Backbone:
């Protein structure tokens, strides 16, 4: 199971989880670009197609997950601690 799917809307998220979720779609697009370059360089089309399907499946999970956690506020544990120390 994907680490992204380990989260649900009822649990608070931290900054690292949000950052990871934000990076995943961009990482997928980068991978697809490398797959295309490999195909153009002569890689086996069936292999590139398999890689691309895997990345598209990752992206299909990552984008809705980002939308879900993007609407949540991070727990900000470190932030809260520093705020109370300065207040």
Residues:
């Amino acid at each position: 199971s994907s680490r992204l799917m380990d989260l649900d809307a009822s649990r608070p998220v931290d900054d690292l989880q949000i950052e990871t979720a934000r990076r995943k779609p961009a990482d997928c697009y980068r991978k697809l670009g490398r797959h295309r370059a490999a195909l153009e360089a002569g890689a086996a089309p069936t292999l590139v197609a398999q890689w691309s399907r895997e990345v598209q499946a990752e992206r299909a999970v990552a984008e809705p997950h980002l939308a879900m956690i993007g609407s949540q506020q991070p727990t900000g544990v470190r932030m809260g601690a520093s705020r109370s120390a300065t207040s």
Notes: DSSP finds three helices and no strands in the chain.
